[in-house]
């Protein structure tokens, strides 16, 4: 159904909750160029037990929302699958939300997996 699935990860358990919903993930990215070696090791460690040999692993730097939206376009991603941390409505309105920003800015379909309790 989906040719290219983009799954942005940040090293948190919440972000990883999106992986099972992505099916056969094609591209997993981490936005943390400052710690590139650790980020690559993290993505590879996550890929191995899931039996996902077709993953393309990328580590990049920049504003997470900007990077996700831009890479989805560059990769011609069929869908973006990402987690939404369980911020309260007040925290979300004050701090913003990467997943909310991606949903509003992306021309690609976005599946947001809710991971919070609120």
Task: Describe what this molecule looks like in 3D.
This protein has 118 residues and is α/β, with parallel strands linked by helices. It has one domain: Rossmann fold, CATH 3.40.50.620. Helix content is 38%, strand content 22%. The chain contains five helices and five strands, in the order βαβαβαβααβ. The chain has helices at 13-16, 36-50, 64-74, 89-95, 98-105, and strands at residues 5-9, 27-31, 56-60, 79-84, 110-114. A five-stranded parallel β-sheet has the order 3-2-1-4-5, sandwiched between helices. α3 (64-74) runs parallel beside α5. It starts with a strand and ends with a strand. The model has no long low-confidence stretch (mean pLDDT 77).
């Amino acid at each position: 159904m989906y040719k290219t699935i983009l799954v942005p990860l940040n090293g948190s358990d919440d972000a990883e909750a999106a992986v099972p919903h992505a099916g056969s993930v094609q591209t997993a990215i981490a936005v943390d160029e400052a710690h590139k070696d650790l980020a690559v090791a993290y993505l590879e460690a996550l890929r191995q037990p899931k039996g996902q040999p077709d993953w393309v692993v990328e580590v990049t730097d920049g504003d997470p929302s900007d990077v996700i939206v831009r890479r989805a376009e560059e990769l011609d991603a069929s869908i973006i699958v990402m987690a939404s941390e369980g911020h309260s409505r007040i925290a979300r309105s004050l701090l913003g939300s990467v997943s909310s920003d991606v949903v509003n800015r992306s021309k690609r379909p976005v599946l947001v997996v809710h991971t919070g309790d609120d």
